[in-house]
Specification:
The structure is a homodimer of 348-residue chains. The first copy, chain A, has 348 residues and is of the alpha/beta class. Chain A is 43% helix and 17% strand.
């Protein structure tokens, strides 16, 4: 008998007929600092070994932060357990229908983190369920490659990080050390440079820029002086990163300072990819070996004339013509489920 | 009768003979975020209008933080009142001997701050005492010019800020907006760039550097990975800025990355000075008018072969040959007292 914990989170299973939930399921979970998503998908469309181009999601459950570094181990586990139970309950299934679970959770950075969460996960599900635990970059990668852990994933939202994976299981990362330690291509990095440019224009250290009026108007401030108080009133990185669209629109209007900031960010992001691809030899010696480059996050979204992602691709492709950029069509939680499916397939 | 507050802080006055403390005094106070210093000096050596080259300090009292932004208005006032009473008591004098008080306190950024503290100060001292309130940059300036509020002061410790003052009372500032907003020449800025260089060397984005082994050894860490945790464990800027001497010693050993970081910092600091001097026209149209440049703070201390302050001077002097660099020989609290003495002299 598996333990019943967490306030009877699995109680719903008792009310289901023993034969119910006949179809075998996979759970895929993407756990981030702002939210956690768990999806369930049937395993049968894949049993012939060919992946459905648009994998059918049976149920989708959402919860809050599941990064143990942010909310602590206990709260993170409660969130993970609840969101998995919720997805299963929505699917009309019980844990006995689950064939595999893949958790991709931010904050899982060391093998010890992975092992700890894996042991906890195994205690929740029946012994025959295959359990996998990774960090959230893996889900982002798999969402672009439909479950294959090979290539490079560049994530640039509030923060930025690049991961790379070889087919024989090696991996490498670049950036992701936070704003103090030079993640200058991140949304936070771009916006902090824009705020700095406003201060420098104001005190005479830098050229005048359209960023001044645009940012002051957006923040409803009357003078660049007030930016100092605004910045320190709330140290949230996301709040600062939210200014990126203003920087992009100033650059599109031809502002040289804003253009310079975005060009620098492109260089930084391309440098991250270059570092990972080189270290792992992902594109071979001549840079021409084919290798997926999955691009994820608000900074890389292709909805603007000044397209940061497109310029990163163009810079990276010069050195590595084999790079194949991919903008994922499914969400990371689906990527996690597809990864589990791939592992199952390889094992059988 | 003046109010007695603050737990009888002025009680010591009752035990003094009415005729005691015969000599007239000036109080000078330098209030910072880490500590507050108050000194008393006799006014008589100055009564002939010529300043003693080494002003005699009668008493010196030290207390903690008096920045109202950091500890709140009440705690800041208690600290200020205690440290003034302590200096007077050590001098064997009472408030009736005081001719002038000059408080130079960090966090006094607006005329409203100044007016509020001035009213509070006037209520403590007899009506005939001249009271002056400024921010702490003024004390640093006056410590270099022996009480004259004219020229430019460059402060570079954990943070950095530049102030300029014209003889007709105009002033300007540059930088001082904190690390998020680009105070890159500060001790924090230099050290953050060094930490970033270690991360970039480690993940392949930047060249190898001597900073890696030097910084890891100093922090007793075994891998650059651990720097991320170290940085976020304690957000104190001073803790990061304390790494500056390591950057300087790596630069002295010929490390190119460390040299690049220090060269950039020199450019930044010189740019701050240039901005203030230009806006106020402190060196005239041809840059040749004589103007003091007071240099204060750990980053500018002239105790190393790689002398940041000297290189800033050399860069600034190219554009403004009239600049006269000064490294203060007295402490800022003495500067504050000399400033009060100068104001008294101008009034009489």
């Amino acid at each position: 008998m598996k333990r019943e914990r967490n306030g009877g989170v699995w109680d719903f299973e008792h009310s289901m007929a023993p034969a119910s939930g006949g179809q075998d399921l996979i759970l895929g979970l993407d756990g981030g600092t702002t939210s956690t998503v768990c999806i369930s998908m049937p395993i049968f469309p894949f049993t012939d070994g060919v992946l459905h181009p648009d994998p059918p999601v049976l149920a989708r459950a959402i919860a809050g932060c599941s990064n143990h570094n942010s909310v602590g181990e206990t709260a993170a586990r409660e969130t993970l357990e609840h969101v998995m139970a919720d997805a299963l309950s929505q699917s009309g299934s019980t844990r006995s229908s689950v064939r595999a679970v893949c958790l991709a959770v931010s904050g899982v950075n060391h093998p010890t983190d992975q092992e700890r969460i894996l042991n906890w996960l195994r205690a929740i599900f029946p012994n025959e369920v295959k359990c996998f635990v990774h960090n959230d970059a893996v889900a982002a990668m798999a969402s672009g490659t439909m479950g294959k852990l090979h290539g490079c994933v560049l994530i640039a939202g509030t923060g930025t990080i690049t991961y790379g994976y070889t087919e024989d299981g090696r991996e490498a990362r670049a950036a992701g050390a936070g704003p103090v330690l030079g993640d200058w291509g991140s949304g936070y990095g771009i916006a902090a440079m824009a705020l700095t440019a406003v201060i420098r224009a104001y005190d005479g250290r830098g050229p005048q820029t359209l960023l001044t009026s645009s940012i002051l108007q957006a923040l409803q401030l009357s003078s660049p002086d007030e930016l100092i108080g605004w910045t320190y009133a709330d140290p949230s990185w996301a709040r600062i990163a939210a200014l990126v669209p203003i920087v992009v629109s100033c650059a599109e209007s031809g502002d040289e300072v804003a253009n310079g900031i975005l060009h620098d960010a492109v260089q930084e992001l391309a440098e991250s990819v270059r570092a990972v691809v080189s270290r792992l030899g992902l594109c071979g010696e001549d840079g021409k070996d084919r290798c997926p480059l999955v691009m994820v996050g608000g900074v890389l979204e292709a909805n603007k004339k000044w397209d940061i992602g497109k310029r990163v691709i163009s810079l990276v492709s010069k050195e590595f013509p084999g790079m194949r950029p991919i903008r994922p069509k499914v969400e990371p939680a689906v990527g996690a489920a597809l990864l589990a499916w791939n592992f199952l397939k390889e094992e059988s």
